[in-house]
TrEMBL record:
<keyword id="KW-1003">Cell membrane</keyword>
<dbReference type="Pfam" id="PF09335">
    <property type="entry name" value="VTT_dom"/>
</dbReference>
<keyword id="KW-1133">Transmembrane helix</keyword>
<protein>
    <submittedName>
        <fullName>DedA family protein</fullName>
    </submittedName>
</protein>
<dbReference type="InterPro" id="IPR032816">
    <property type="entry name" value="VTT_dom"/>
</dbReference>
<feature type="transmembrane region" description="Helical">
    <location>
        <begin position="12"/>
        <end position="30"/>
    </location>
</feature>
<feature type="domain" description="VTT">
    <location>
        <begin position="30"/>
        <end position="159"/>
    </location>
</feature>
<feature type="transmembrane region" description="Helical">
    <location>
        <begin position="172"/>
        <end position="190"/>
    </location>
</feature>
<dbReference type="InterPro" id="IPR051311">
    <property type="entry name" value="DedA_domain"/>
</dbReference>
<keyword id="KW-0812">Transmembrane</keyword>
<keyword id="KW-0472">Membrane</keyword>
<feature type="transmembrane region" description="Helical">
    <location>
        <begin position="138"/>
        <end position="160"/>
    </location>
</feature>
<feature type="transmembrane region" description="Helical">
    <location>
        <begin position="50"/>
        <end position="71"/>
    </location>
</feature>
Length: 201
């Protein structure tokens, strides 16, 4: 199965990597760790070059994150409240969560965008308050590109390393990845079905 996915990513080429990474940051169907890791395995097999893979992954990351930055900038802080009030159950958050994120962003400044690029979940989430606080476009793009390039390089190099141990990886990671996917979906369903606004808790 892993072999098939690696070949599929290689056939999609660098534009495929850009598309997957952009999509992953808008609505994550496949984690970036998987995309860049398997891309690194394609590098190990000679299907891609490391530099272009990192560049494509970083471009896709910037595009996906800029989507949420633009949403935050367009609607502003209060403009998102009706959306969160309506879809809070499916997002498993309420307006107080958004307020906490925004306060944290304002208190720490622009460096948060760079640092959060290395953190699962938060690396996309931080783009929204960056837009809501009207962080300058150039600062957001530079911080996002710099942090993403470093993180994507780590993931790609990990993929190159793991490709040398492909048989062991395919034997153990396949069942683990399937179990992890089931666990994540189960956790999300549990969150949605048990989630209540703070005033009802």
């Amino acid at each position: 199965m892993t072999d098939f996915i690696v070949d599929l990513i290689a056939r999609g080429g660098y534009l495929g990597i850009v598309f997957l990474m952009a999509l992953e940051n808008v609505f994550p169907p496949i984690p970036s760790e998987v995309i860049m890791g398997l891309g690194g395995m394609a590098v190990g097999r000679g299907h891609m070059t490391l530099g272009w893979l990192i560049a494509a992954g970083t471009l896709g990351t910037v595009i996906g994150n800029y989507f949420w930055y633009a949403v935050g900038r367009k609607f502003g802080y209060q403009g998102l409240k009706p959306f969160v009030d309506r879809w809070g159950r499916w997002l498993t958050l309420d307006w107080e969560d958004v307020e906490k994120i925004t306060r944290f962003f304002h208190d720490r400044g622009g460096w948060v965008v760079f640092v959060f690029r290395f953190m699962p979940t938060f690396r996309t989430m931080v783009s929204l308050p960056a837009g809501m606080s009207c962080m300058p476009h150039w600062r957001f793009l530079i911080a996002t590109a710099a942090g993403s390039a470093i993180w994507n390089a780590v993931l790609a190099l990990a993929g190159v390393y793991l490709d040398r141990r492909f048989e062991m990886l395919d034997r153990y990671v396949g069942p683990f990845a399937a179990a992890l996917t089931v666990a994540i979906v189960g956790w999300y369903i549990y969150r949605v079905t048990t989630w209540k606004p703070r005033e009802e808790r």
